[in-house]
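Slide 14.
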Amino acid sequence: MAVVPMKHLTLCGMKKDRKAILELLQRRGVVEITPCSVSGDGYQTPDVTDRLVNFEQTIHILNQALAILDREAPVPSSPLASLEGRQFMTLEDYETFSQDQEETCRVARHLIELDRQMAENRAEALKCRTQQEMLVPWKELDVPLSTQGTRDTVVLIGSLPEACTASDILELLAREQPQASVSLEILHSSPQQTCLFLLCLKEDMPAVLDSLNSCGFARPALSGEESPAAMIRQLEKQAAEYEEQAAAAQKELVSCSGFRDALRFTADYYAMRVEKYQVIGRSVESKRLFFLTGYLPEQVAAGLAQEIESSFPAAVQIESPPEGETPPVLLRNNNFNSPVESVVESYGLPGSGERDPTSVMAIFYYFLFGMMLSDAAYGLIMVIVTTLLMRKFPRMEHGMRQSLRMFRFCGISTIGWGVLFGSYMGDAPAIIASTFFGSDFSIPPLWFSPVDEPMRMLMFSFLIGIVHIFVGLGVKLVNDCRDGHVKDAVYDVVFWYLLVGGGIVWLLTVPAFLNMAGLTFHLPSPVGTVAAVCAGVGALGIILTSGRDSKNPVKRLLKGLYGLYNVTGYLSDILSYSRLLALGLATGVIATVFNKMGSMMGGGIAGAILFIVVFLIGHLLNIGINLLGAYVHTNRLQFVEFFGKFYEGGGKKFSPFGAHTRYYKFKEDK
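Slide 15: predicted structure.
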């Protein structure tokens, strides 16, 4: 369908022209380079490991410097800055910036060094402040903490892990060491510790120390040759010096913020060099020649080959993909289908021989998403917001733009279903009219209201599910017939059409089912008889053909019966579409609840204020939650119920050699 045909490229050029040719290919961004298979004497694969490691290290340094600038000198940005995309840069600007890349790398290393100095100085300042705090309890001591005593006395300076008075400590010592002679001074006391200065005779020191140790006595963590007060002053001075040095480093660092653009460019420059050398590592070279192989879209192959051969003494061969090789996959769809290519890619790109399901899936995707959200006002908000964002940010990345376009189409579908079901932020028009204007104004649904007729909505959901599943089977039927597998199409599709379709038609002739479903019509009995026969033929065909790959008749029959058991899977798939009812009702019911909550105080100024607050917050939450729910469950219905009938995926995405940069887009006039 929309899988772009690929051609295989083989390029032979002069080694002296390799740099220019690779830069041309990188700017064009249309060739995926594959490992070259050219072999022979004198040919070898270049070893680029050291260069790649060097480039990666440089990129790391540049990104580290940018992170430092973003932390210390941040650039004000809006919450929507991520939508702005990369800036454009011409080749002339590229050449100008690239001449200064060595100087920019030097600046990056200098920024990292300044950041290291700043961190070290701040750490040292913090260390000094911490030591100051530790010395505060000892500031009343007028001798150094390292004081040991005199010839006949010993000084014990330390702390106990609780609040104590001098009398408590002296009483303890008198009780345990009655002969000891001590002098005690309490320097500081708090619930957590008691700092003390104790003087005793040398002969009494062991006994006194044992008594204190039994109470948790501990020496000060800090010591010095000066008094604690002097140490505090010294630490204050050191901390101020470290903080001053850190501030100076920060100031110099901030002054380098003008290099931010150069740092970003140089990071992109080396990222492109990494990609270029990765390509060189996939090539083969001799003393004077080099060879490249790869894949490119068919529609650009001839033009690129002509451009290369007209600019360089090189030979370019374009041919069909070699037998046994599977080319990468590139999807190309129209503006309506292309936004959901990312959904297909998240499941898996088309495998070998498969066709792109995007065009078939897109219709159902928008249809089901709108049905799940099903509120005209919410859909209008989606359309307005996505349109404004795409216009406001023209440089937005392609993937983000495609996502917004997808949600815009989903919003249009949501508007349609909201009008059909009569939902405009729930029943907001009726609530506003009755609460503030005393009117019975309301906007009736063009079709019906799911909140009032849930069974009707459930039956409609099942009908949509049957159509969705049958279309999936129809795609498989078409694919098998195109590929010449007509028998497989009959066995795997037609028989299931007969069984499932016949069973559904037969149910529409059963009064009990019609009453339960609330349906007001019934099909004639002869139609039910024909449908039952068709279902029987389908069941018999499935039993006879599901095990056709087995030669043993017993195994074939058992596999056929197991294949027939898969009818429960179809029943489960159809029941899965009840989520259309569930999510549609959830959106409307939650919106109605918030409207009721906002109108509890009735009219008047107070009532209007309450209504506005509840209305805005409630509906903002409701649209956010149900947008996520609709997105998740729409994907689920595509992946399981739809793709499961005909699509396997497994293709490899086309990843061309190009300028895959982070900050700048490089363009040229050509």
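Speaker note: The CA atoms of residues 162 and 192 lie 5 Å apart.
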